[in-house]
């Protein structure tokens, strides 16, 4: 009876635990920690969505069991979103299921379609549930490059030829968590062609579809003709409408996969609380200015963060989407790995970030920085990092970057 349970043995130690424990100790000691680790939106849910929740919860008839696949109005609202945003038609009855967050949907679909020993193709680094949902279900995961380019396509070809058994499913996630990579429609066309050729299911995670900073909105794999033959896509209300704690997401696409997920859910849950589902309809069908405001907010934060990190001498690429910056560990600290560097940053700069190792072994040379604090706190964070780097002799910022830092200080004084 002392042996660990089989599925628990397949899960590695929680990589984020060390940093989280150090963060908790620092806060218990009264230290002011700027937490840029977890991708937890800090903005309030838009008022009209909250108002619909409050209105609906006053009706006692909404307090009973709901529908595990989602109320009809919510599935129709998601179909309307796909029609407006992607020019894609979905059948709300057979091609859409509401989930208790996209994470739950991914995990339950993995359980529904996986046999022990199946091979699953997963980008590395990627969001943990992408691989561990399948690992928990008994599959073996084969890593492929996380970049939406020829490197991934070549790796997929090699994986099909050299994996035993042949892969049964592939995960894609763009805009990506943690890397912030974006894919274009040509890449999705290549993925659909590859999956059809080799009879492989595709699970696309599109949770960050509305957080982008360029002129071209990220596409959906469902825009590729024939994608519904082999693909299902997961979206979420969490980031688009700052509804992370509400736990509402969707799976949409291939009817066979949707049916499998719906059947699995029918045994496991009764769906989200009905007032939350009704409020989600109001979000999808209501005014969308709040989405643009959210996008503008993250763009401003991104610019402040990246400018400040460059001023500190830390060359971090500016993300074109998602709410994260994927930051390569500065050369002086590369030997520490992402966990060691994250702990050092917490100790010396009082800034918490997420170790890249938590997203796969190929992420261990990066850390993920979330845009979940206001611009004042982000400036404070980058100043602290700069002071730590300078004191440690790590890097020296350029004159241009110093000017950017001065500009940020002026902007902060004006808004104080």
Helix content: 40-55%
Number of strands: 12
- Taken together, the total number of domains comes to 2
User: What percent strand?
Assistant: 5-15%
Question: Quick one: biggest sheet?
Answer: 7 strands, mixed
Tell me the series of helices and strands, N- to C-terminal.
Answer: HHEHHEHEHEHEHEEEHHHEHEEEHH
**Helix/strand/pairing class, anyone?**
alpha/beta
What CATH calls the topology of the largest domain is Aspartate Aminotransferase, domain 2
Cα end-to-end separation: 60 Å
Superfamily (CATH H level) name of the largest domain: Type I PLP-dependent aspartate aminotransferase-like (Major domain)
Shape: globular
| Rg of Cα set | 22 Å
Strand order of the largest sheet: 2-8-7-6-5-3-4
Would you write up a description of this structure?
There is one protein chain. The chain is an alpha/beta fold. It folds into two domains: 6-44 and 290-415, Aspartate Aminotransferase, domain 1, CATH 3.90.1150; 64-285, Type I PLP-dependent aspartate aminotransferase-like (Major domain) (Aspartate Aminotransferase, domain 2). It is built from 14 helices and twelve strands. It has a seven-stranded mixed beta sheet, with helices on both faces. Strands 9-12-11 form a three-stranded antiparallel beta sheet. The termini are far apart.
